[in-house]
Amino acid sequence: MIDTEALDSGLGDADDDDFDPAVEDVDAELPDHRYTDRELSWLAFNQRVLELAEDPTLPVLERANFLAIFASNLDEFFMVRVAGLKRRIVTGLAVPTNVGRAPQEVLSDISSEAHALQLRHASVWGDMVQPALAEAGIEIVGWEDLDDSERGRLYDYFQAQVFPVLMPLAVDPAHPFPYISGLSLNLAIRIRNAKTGRQEFARLKVPPMLPRFVELNTGTSVKRYLPLEHLIANNLEDLFPGMEILQHHTFRLTRNEDVVIEEDETENLIQALEAELLRRRFGPPIRLEVTEDMDDVTLDLLLGELDITDQEVYRLPGLLDLRGLFDLSRIDRPELRYKPHVPTTATAFQPAEQNGRTDFFGAIRAGDVLVHHPYESFTTSVVAFLEQAARDPHVLAIKQTLYRTSGDSPIVQALIDAAERGKQVLALVEVKARFDEAANIVWARKLEKAGVHVVYGLVGLKTHCKLLHVIREEDGALRSYSHIGTGNYNPKTSRLYEDFGLFTSDEQVGRDLTRLFNELSGYAIEKKFKRLLVAPLHLRKGLLRHIEAERRNALDGKPAHIRIKVNSMVDEQIIDALYRASQAGVRVDVWVRGICSLRTDLPGVTDNITVRSILGRYLEHSRIFAFDNDGDPVAFIGSADMMHRNLDRRVEALVRVIAPAHVKELTTLFDLAMSDATSSWHLGDGGVWTRHAFDEDGKPLVDLQDRTMAQVQRRRRARAVR
Fold this sequence. Notes:
Elements: H1 38-54, H2 60-91, H3 103-135, E1 138-140, H4 148-162, E2 169-171, E3 185-193, E4 199-205, E5 213-216, E6 223-227, H5 228-233, E7 243-255, H6 269-280, E8 285-291, H7 296-306, E9 313-316, H8 360-365, E10 369-373, H9 379-391, E11 395-402, H10 410-420, E12 424-429, H11 437-449, E13 453-455, E14 462-463, E15 466-474, E16 477-485, E17 497-504, H12 507-521, E18 532-534, H13 539-555, E19 561-566, H14 572-583, E20 587-592, E21 609-613, E22 619-620, E23 623-627, E24 634-638, H15 644-648, E25 650-651, E26 653-657, H16 660-674, E27 680-683, E28 689-692, H17 704-721
Parallel strand pairs: 1-6, 8-9, 11-12, 12-13, 14-25, 17-22, 19-20, 20-21
Antiparallel strand pairs: 2-4, 3-4, 3-7, 5-6, 7-8, 10-17, 11-15, 15-16, 16-17, 18-26, 19-23, 21-27, 23-24, 24-26, 27-28
């Protein structure tokens, strides 16, 4: 088990065990009902995504993309969060809740809010985005909108490309009700035998490997698409010759796909995980989406066969599974998208001469390098550094954590290349990364075959930290080059996710990572980390120590300011510490993308707390923790959100950023995000988020992501002039 002591971060080397925030001298009591329900807060986050789709000032293909993101997010919410709550209720396990309500009441509130959001989602598509697409020359049409010529051409396509892969499954005494896979799109069909007059039921799965929207060649600039399920539904006679088609309706099932592994009881984690992934395919149903015109006979049959309750049925107008709108990304209409941002190469990593090659080791030796993705390129920094390390004859060893990476990852290939060149290579592959488990197993085995030492971390903990450690021989001595990031080593998502990464050759960080990797791959128990805060034992205590220092500074009349940027703010102990800091007069700024259980409407408690959320073209993913520290600012970046799982059940790491220019860059970005002149959502009374996108004159507020890209571009131009 990981054990760390307080790092050299402005608070000395005191033993963390001497600090117990639960018994600190606190003057004011906190109110009982001081947290927002985490599940409802997550739904509020997804509503913010939906509000972007509702925004008529955004490019219309981007609005369609936000509708698809909303749908994908909600699917995962049901498969994991709702499924987990139901599993705990059924098995009698305690249901974690930070608002003291009965589990069934929580599920009822989730159902009510999710129903309203799904109806709103369908309305945004049918009433706003679909008409806006049509005005732009992209029409998503129904069968009734086609003329005879178009229907004829589509019938030819149906016969050639669709009909051969369809598999209608009848339900009768000889054919039991078929298995319905999770998230598949299906047609429920009721037919009558023309000879016997007997009514039958059949299920037809819409083939997921075919394009969701079938393009009609109009011969004009207008693009017309027919949903695949409409094409199939209007040609059912070919599938059931001699039968009368009585009814056909689209439906979609969501299953419990949460993976539960009892690691203490298994001898082989990979084998146990593979068995659990197989079981996940057959998880119990938790949501049934149907078209609003589905007749009661068909619905009752589905309810009975799938063991679904009325509360779990979602009747929706229009198309089901709007994840299919991701397919519109192939349309070549750049004017209907965000204006392109072209990532730059970080200033420190730009070649000294045109067409020259970057010496990453020399650049990092010159000083710590802080890189901000996707404004600064992941490919020309992290990937290029690792590729150079794999080739460099002076590099002796490479150690890296891999939580999520792309299927054709140059990261994985670089590790393989390094191993094949005779270097010591250690890859800590987290095979329990949700929904990437199967892919990570494949890459773990590929790495092992290439001679990479592959380990899977510590029993009972996910390894979520983003670490890369390179050991190089220089002038007869060993030198460490390290990278600690806030995001995954994934070149694909790095173009969409906002993250920071710190490159350093600092000896303290090198020793910290050597010790941490030894613990993750072996049995070492390390107690000394200098520039890192590491979970699960002491990261929480380290942050609480800094929050407490700000509180005491405020009580002593000194300036005090806390800035925290995370994806989720849920942990009660951290939230309570922020409340007490606010009561003492500390200015507390929280920038959160997703769940936020912290409230801002508690008089006398949250008067000094401001909470903002920013959503846009990039997914805000970095985690930043900055403290005023009586004029000597302390800042960290890393992988940890303020959630129980991150602080208690994961290996996480924050690194202290020490270069004054880097600390200034982080706090300046933070201040821009919190400014009333920046477009964002403000958390207010009752946990309600209100979007502030325009000023009093109706002019758009500052877009933080556009502004950041412009600033990065200016820095590059300034260097070019020098």
